[in-house]
Amino acid sequence: MTDKKIILTRGLMASGKSTWAKQMAKDPSFARVSRDDIRLMTQDTAYGGPIDEDLVTKIETESVKAILNAGRTPIVDAMHLYQRQINRWQRLGYPVEIVTFDGIDLPELLFRNGIRTGVVPEHVVLEKFDRFTIKGSGGSLKPVKLSPKDFEVASFEPYVPNTRHPAAFIF
To answer: Where is 35: in which H helix or E strand?
Structure first.
């Protein structure tokens, strides 16, 4: 690997992730990838309704790969609250840097959410705050961890069906 890396934002909605990522992306060595923007672009909604999250994930992943291949640093602008979300990016085999936006208390978070474009329903903000912050901490997020530097990246060959055999159905 080279000195390429993936930067992940991590924080609750309205914590400043997108504002920071947009500012950073003004530097041509960075490029911002946003799940919300991908949802808007492909399904005309960022929240609620039936959203094809598998499609969003595929576009997000391929965008990050293309940015890396272009020699730029991707900033993945999303909440990244679950460990599995961090692990997914590490499996690409590049170093991952997490920029955390926390320490924002609930009244401030609700205020920020109420004045921004794309307001998230209040019950969702309350649920995420309760679930992902340390009780009594003033909004500090529960920790996630990066895997050790010797994190092994699994490599798989794509399946190519043998057309000489009949189709198989797996249930």
So the answer is: helix 35-43
Instruction: Quote the pTM value.
Output: 0.80
Q: Cα separation of 40 and 3, whole Å?
A: 32
How far is 48 from 12, CA to CA, in rounded Å? 17
For 152-163, the DSSP string reads PPP--PPP---T
Using one digit for the tens of pLDDT, what is the confidence trace for 17-40?
999 999 999 999 999 999 989 988
Q: Which residues pair with 73 in a beta bridge?
A: 30
Sheet holding 6-11, edge to edge: 30-34, 73-77, 6-11, 96-101
DSSP state, 96? E
Give backbone dihedrals phi and psi of 141, rounded to 5 degrees, phi first. Answer: -75, 150
User: DSSP characters for 79-120?
Assistant: ---SHHHHHHHHTTTS-EEEEEE----HHHHHHHHHHSSSPP
